[in-house]
Design brief:
alpha/beta; about 25% strand; about 290 residues
């Protein structure tokens, strides 16, 4: 059975407060451990997901393009999200920036090149562009990798033209209601860091809002979209294998946290060699504009 991706649940969210966990270091570690590996970069580019494809189209909608904009794709990777955005351009251009050269190389050698798209090597928190250079900017599926997210969004603010728009798309975790939720979030991040490096950290919807507002953006729109699933295994669900790893470890190590994982995210039941999963994961889409000067 395939995942039920066709009817995601969507709702708005406000400025609820929770605890910040901002870090001062750079985001190099994850990229240098995995995304600098050519084999991993090629494999990453081949992966397909209905959820990612649908979210990429929603991101393109939120950019509100006329077709002539200069657009920055932060942590562009192989350009997978730049492709659907580029299809909406007429005379405009997209510049994708990433410091993982292996990812850029895979994107550069696509058999079907991305139109109106070019690449630049560089750090997301030290962008190699002049101030006031872009009409639009976006970062997709990458905020959770940055060790210095405040530095990244501040740099984007610098290179955006006055009145420019910035869209953030990222998977999110639930707002912590109690110490059990806090412990569960800690465990989730620990498991993901084994593969993705010490800087990995999932954000909440409200922490993304606060991150952007603190460096000078004003809110235009913030929504959360949830994709339900019920299927055997985690195929087609972004980072699903890691989530299942969390579930299986908690079942043995911390039954209370396993129960909260079931309540907050998904249930899992083994039958033979297969695992039946049912639940939903959420993604924040934050639409921001530069504060007028």
């Amino acid at each position: 059975m395939t995942a039920e991706h066709k009817h995601p649940h969507e709702h708005g969210h406000g400025d609820r407060h929770d605890h910040d966990h901002e870090h001062g270091h750079k985001h190099d570690h994850v990229h240098k451990t995995r995304f600098h590996d050519p084999q991993h970069a090629a494999e990453f580019d081949r992966r397909t997901s209905d959820i990612r494809a649908d979210l990429a189209e929603k991101l393109a909608d939120m950019l509100s393009l006329k077709g002539d904009e200069q657009i920055l794709d932060v942590a562009t990777g192989t350009g997978r999200v730049a492709r659907p955005v580029a299809k909406r351009l007429k005379t405009g251009r997209i510049v994708g920036v990433d410091q993982a050269l292996a990812m850029l190389d895979v994107g550069h050698h696509h058999e079907d090149p991305i139109r109106a798209y070019s690449q630049s090597a560089g750090e997301a928190d030290a962008l190699p562009f002049k101030s006031n250079s872009f009409d639009r900017a976006f970062v997709s599926f990458s905020l959770h990798h940055f060790g210095n997210p405040a530095g990244v969004v501040h740099e984007v603010l610098r290179v955006l033209k006055n009145g420019g728009k910035f869209v953030v798309l990222d998977p999110i975790v639930k707002e912590a209601r109690d110490s059990v939720d806090v412990a569960l979030e800690t465990k989730i991040n620990q498991v993901f860091r084994r593969t993705h490096g010490d800087n990995f950290r999932f954000h909440t919807a409200s922490s993304i809002q606060r991150l952007l507002m603190k460096v000078g953006y004003r809110i235009a729109r913030g929504t959360v979209v949830t994709y339900p699933f019920e299927q055997d295994g985690m195929d087609g669900i972004p980072t699903g294998a890691h989530w299942l790893e969390v579930a299986e470890e908690l079942e043995v190590e911390a039954p209370q946290l396993a129960q909260r994982l079931r309540e907050n995210y998904f249930t899992w039941h083994k039958h033979g060699d297969a695992v039946r999963v049912k639940g939903g994961f959420s993604y924040a889409r934050e639409h921001r504009k530069e504060r007028p000067h």
